Amino acid sequence: MFRDRRESDLSEELQLHLERETERLQATGLSREEARLQARRLFGGVEQIKEEARDARGTGAWDALVRDARHGLRRLVRDWRFTTAAVLILGIAIGANTAIFSVVNAVLFRRQAFADPDRLVNIYQNDRAGKPMIVTSYSAYMEMAEYTDIFSGTMASSIPNPSRYLHDGTVRDAVVEYASATYLKVLGLQPSLGRWFDETEVRRGAPLVAVLGYQSWARLFRSDPSVIGRVIRMEGVAVTIIGVGPANHRGTLDVGLGTDFWLPITAVPVMIPVAALRDAPTIFVPLFVKARLREGVTVPQARAAMDVLGRRLAAENPDQFGNRGEFAIGPGITVVPSSDVRIHPQADVPFMALASLVLVIVGLVLAIACSNLATLLLVRGAARAKEVSVRLAMGATRRQLVRHLLIESLLLSLAGGIVGCVLAWWGMRALQAIDLPFRVDMNVDYRVLAFAIMLSLVTGVVFGLAPAIKATRVDLLQTLRDEGLQPIDHRRLTLKNALIVVQVAISVLLLGGTSIFLQATAATKALRVGYAVDGVAMLETDWRFAGYSQSTAKTAHDDLLRRIEAIPGVESAALMSGLPMASTGMPIVVDSATGQPGSEVEAAMLEAGPGFFDTMRIPLLYGRVFDARDRADSPRVAVITEAMSRKYFGAVDAVGRRFRLQSDPNSWTEVIGIVRDTGTGDFEDDILDPIAPPYYRSYTQSGAQATTVLARTSRDAASLVAAMQRELRAVDITLPVITAKTMAQRLEESQAVPAVAATFLAILAGLGLLLASIGLYAVVAFAVARRSREIGIRMALGARSQQVVSSIARGVAALIGVGTGIGLVLSVLLMLALRTSSGSADIGIGSMTVYRPSIDPLALLAIAAVTALVGVAAAFVPARRAARMHPLVALRHE
Amino acid sequence: MSDQTDVLQGTLDLLILRTIALAPMHGWAIAQRIQQISDDLLRVAQGSLYPALHRLEHQGWITADWGASENNRRARFYSLTKAGRKQLETEVAKWERLSAGVNLVLQRT
């Protein structure tokens, strides 16, 4: 308003001046019209004077800013090609940064809000080397909770467990934590609705209750308060919802994994579907333990008390502490302030290092994008040299021009930032749409937004300032006279060229990584399956969801099996627990047969039934398979794979030998048969990590519930799946179908992981190539723009356009060649490093296995060809412009 | 016309301040007045007059008020402020020193 009035005042003032001047001139004898024109001529440009008057008044930086912004916007819209390229580059880079940052933010930076966090400590049992283990046992937790003189409260919560529940007629996956009654109180939090479970509910045999996670309450139950008191079926068991967790508490670990339900620890034997754990005398669930120090108690005091406890536990339970091997518990106990731990003391450093590495890498991507953009701006600056000179000559100060150019680049970077946020948001949605058994909660919170905005502002200033300063540092006279023969830059080793080389090399390296995963995909496909796939179909249900008891379920599934066996074409059928080839890894103790304590190793268990090996066509090598003799009251028996026999028993035929579960000293199991090795349910694991060899137990003996019918037909497996579902409905219409597919489908799914990784890397490599080609384009365009005069002279002197193009092409070829070469060397080095590695990398709390690729020259050649092709295509456009340049135009071109 | 000299950039401020020290004046009148008093020797480049006026106003040496012009139109009349009077004195002193110096150089060489 105020500004508007001042503006009209100024117009009026100048208008008056012109009128008076006209009158004066008329008085000297001129006609009115002549006088008016003369007055105008004498006066000069009204608009320019207005602007100078405004500037003189210093009306403010704000007006100038708005004017510059408007002007900049107009220019950017006019140069829409440049603008699109720039915004796209920045959008991709800022988007990638924002997306990665939001993942890192979700996993590492979001801090939980606990009351009085300084008095909270984490407690871990140590392994035999004295390092804190991932988790603590239930019995040890119970002992820790006794130290009420040290701790005002002690709580335990399991690692997040996968579980299933029935909702709206379908069985869904959920993340469940099993917690103590003290959980929320020790953390100093309040349920947002209802209550937490009390001590009477954390007792074996007590009616099951659950507290719903706040996010899940909002997502699944639309924040309906009447959810309290509702009974849902989890793992088929009726569970009453008694409360909703705190709004700002996602779970114990809070690494982006939202907990859907909290259940009492004592629910574990009922809920965990592995029967062996159900039978164990103690509750076997790995726990995280946190405690609140009493007023006046220090961390060292708590440490001293826990030291005493650790030694006592070791002395009292020699059978638990005497074992050797990977999972052996040591006598030590670690106590650390909770604020010092993000995930786990052993995992934090490698996790942080990994996160920083990822951030640095995407930061590099941004840096490269910015350097490309700076080159583009330089090209533009060169093209605008004349405009800049004219404005300088007209009296614009350099500061005004730099400000003007800087505002333009800020506009660009803000647009890039917006595009980046949209891309990041879209990318995260795409990530979350991938069907995972859990939900990673990656919200764009204020930290992510602040990060993106800061990023775009900083890039705006950083990439805009240097070109702006350079563009305004022109030799006025020379540029205006258009006589300047700019010195030709013959240096090869410029920063811009180096950056292009780096970009090309990185893209090639990413392509190399993609080829490794493609190779892994091919390897999984080539792996020996070892069991029947054609004609095999499976149908999984869960009897408990329809209210069956152990014994009624037996009648029902035997009925189902008979019906399926009767389907025309079915050759063989069998019942099993879980899905075929999906095993559960568990620590076992192998009987050394020499009286020495056995060694602790990991094996993977499958719960099959009679007829399983026949249906799956897995050959028996020694001994026998399961039959009617194996009942709940007969001695525990197992059929093991030849790999397990060789690896853990050191014999081809281990029939008659024994092993037991580490969690249960009374679970000695006799080996009755050896079967041929097969691929497991997870083919990626078979290539990467074939460490835990599988063994089979019979569900008829282990007490597990048979959930799945497996059948082999001589006809089409897909139609068998449909027929099996019909039979299930005939048995009981209320039984939920959890899985119904053919073995071929399942096999394909298990091979999908490396393919997904390959796709992901290929997308990254594609982005890398896109950035590199834009960079290449910018550099070539810049060179052409700078050399247009030289090109013009050469063409005027008779050089052919081919010669001009070939001189440019030589430079481009050198850049692409060097970049590709470096990238290929790096790729080969990476492959060699993977090949010679032990096959596993220590990441602190375990090992991560890696695929050992072979070096495929054909793949490397293809990568080089693709890179060269893209590079040449990018350079082609500006080079063609140079070639088509008319000598006269080129010479006139500044 | 050929005898006219454009007012030097630095001296325009001085001339404006001196001119309106007698009575408030609007822009056109100031330019006319300078020309008249200098016997048409000095000519104010009209394009630089208004920026100069606005600059002086911004610096607080002159103020502007709306009033009626000779032809009965609304016009902005500029007058000196207290700070403007002081500024006029220093500008005059500066000018005298400068012209005396220039004269000496011209006479003695």
Q: What does this 3D model show about the protein?
A:
The complex is a heterodimer of chains A (894) and B (109). With 894 residues, chain A is α+β, with helices and mostly antiparallel strands. Chain A folds into four domains: 2-58, no CATH class; 117-346, no CATH class; 500-527 and 751-894, no CATH class; 536-750, no CATH class. Chain A has 29 helices and 25 strands. In chain A, the strands form five sheets. Chain A has a six-stranded mixed barrel with strand order 3-4-9-6-8-7. A six-stranded mixed beta barrel of chain A has the order 15-16-21-18-20-19. In chain A, helix 27 (801-836) packs antiparallel against helix 28 (857-884). By secondary structure, chain B is of the alpha+beta class. Chain B has a single domain (5-108), classed as Winged helix-like DNA-binding domain superfamily/Winged helix DNA-binding domain (Arc Repressor Mutant, subunit A, Orthogonal Bundle), CATH 1.10.10.10. Chain B is built from four helices and four strands, in the order E-H-H-E-H-E-E-H. Chain B has helices spanning 9-22, 27-37, 46-59, 82-108; strands at 5-6, 42-43, 62-68, 74-80. In chain B, the strands form two sheets. Chain B has a two-stranded parallel ribbon with strand order 1-2. In chain B, strands 3-4 form a two-stranded antiparallel ribbon. In chain B, strand 3 and strand 4 form a beta hairpin. In chain B, helix 1 (9-22) packs across helix 4 (82-108). The longest helix of chain B is centred in the last third of the chain and has 27 residues, at 82-108. Chain B is globular. The N and C termini of chain B lie far apart (30 Å). The model of chain B has no long low-confidence stretch (mean pLDDT 82). The chains are: A alpha+beta (894), B alpha+beta (109). At the A-B interface, helix 1 and helix 3 of A face helix 2, helix 3 and strand 4 of B.
